[in-house]
Amino acid sequence: MRPGPWTLLFALFLSATFLRADCVNDHRSNKKAGILVTDFSVTGTQTIGATELAKLTSEFIGSCFNDDTEELGERLRAAFQNRGYFAVEVKSLGMKPRDPLGSPKPVSVEAEVSEGARYKLAEITFVDAHAFTPETLREQFPLHKGDLFERSKVASGLESLRKLYSTKGFLDWAAVPETKLASNGTANLNLSIQEGPQYHMGKLDIVAAEELKLRLRAQWKLTEGDVYDQTYIDQYLEANRDLLPAGFSRVNVTTTQNCREAVVQVRMLIDAAEDTSHATQKSIPCEEHRDVSK
Questions:
Q1: 65 vs 257: CA distance, rounded Å
Q2: Which of 4, 52, 131, 225 has the greatest CB tally within 10 Å of its CB?
């Protein structure tokens, strides 16, 4: 039996409704696929209160994610860790589609979680850090002794450290975190710092008509040999917006990083017609030098 016109119309209406579904937050890598969480239930917890658990799951409801249970489980784990439950274990997570043809596909999520103890920060220590004092490094973290040990605040502190080091030319900087959880409900964060070489400003190449080139070069304050500040280019572009052509942005600026010489060369392509050089430069990271020297 062929479906009647009203049946077809209703099916089209349903399909259109899901196609128009809005994501409160959209975490999908493919915006034409993925899931929309319509309900989220968690069982197995022992100490977290019902109100706080409801607030936690509400962060997922109405949002879109990749159709990947492992990824969603890691996001759930992070949500608990952001509340101090750093040893949380997501034992299982399943999704039940409410409409397999929806786009994004609406699903109900069910998870079993053992949240474990709730931890507070004891200390943050730094190993092999020489460019800055421990006090300066510690100030980058929005965590104080006795605060809940929140994963997002640790991540925020690490990002602040990266920016701090980049202002002083440490472009190959890295930090290896190690978390030690104690039986008294405290957590110690140990960061092994790998500073790498300190880069300096190399040559500045501005590809533009001569008059504009001279004016722009006069405004550039990082002279050759100065400690390189990775944030300076954005500051420079903003300060000289009136001199630059409309639409000129950071993507029009090329930086070439040379680990062997610890210099960064900067090239601004403003007028392609003035470009007489066809040579291309390649950044040489320190890891490549280590491989070559073996």
A1: 36
A2: 131
Give the DSSP H/E element, type plus range, for residue 70. Answer: helix 69-81
In order of 79, 90, 127, 253, the CA distances from 182 in angstroms are 21, 21, 20, 48
Which candidate, 41, 93, 92, 39, places its Cα nearest to that of 63?
Answer: 39
Sign of the Cα torsion 48, 49, 55, 60 reads positive
Q: Please name the residues in contact with 80: beta carbons below 8 A apart, sequence gap of 6 or more.
A: 48, 56, 88, 113, 115
pTM flag (> 0.90): no
Tokens of 260: 């062997």
Dihedral sign for Cα 150, 153, 157, 162, please. Answer: positive
**199-243 per-position pLDDT tens digit:** 999 999 999 999 999 999 999 999 999 999 999 999 999 999 999
Q: Which of 66, 55, 58, 17 is nearest to 38 (CA)?
A: 58
Give the C-alpha distances (Å, rounded to integers) separating 47 from 40, 92, 119, 147, 284.
19, 18, 13, 18, 51
User: For residue 36, with 0-12 CB atoms within 10 Å meaning exposed, 13-18 middle and 19 or more buried, which class applies?
Assistant: buried
